[in-house]
Specification:
single chain
């Protein structure tokens, strides 16, 4: 952590804690897509691209559209 941030933390009287951000659901989905891509002999990046651009049933928007 930088000295500047330490000073800011003390000045505003708060403590910043670090944690490893994990999203188990997303990680499992990514692992499954990679496994399926290997099994079907296709490129995993194409599988991710297709997922990113395919509207989800629950939202009617693709993950790419939801990002923006």
């Amino acid at each position: 952590m930088s000295e500047q941030f330490n000073f800011f933390e003390k000045e505003w009287n708060f403590t910043h804690s670090y944690s490893s951000a994990r999203n188990g659901k997303a990680e499992n989905a990514a692992k499954n897509m990679i496994k399926q891509a290997k099994h079907s002999n296709t490129d995993a990046m194409i599988a991710f691209l297709n997922f990113r651009n395919t509207p989800q049933q629950s939202t009617c928007y693709s993950p790419a559209q939801q990002f923006f």
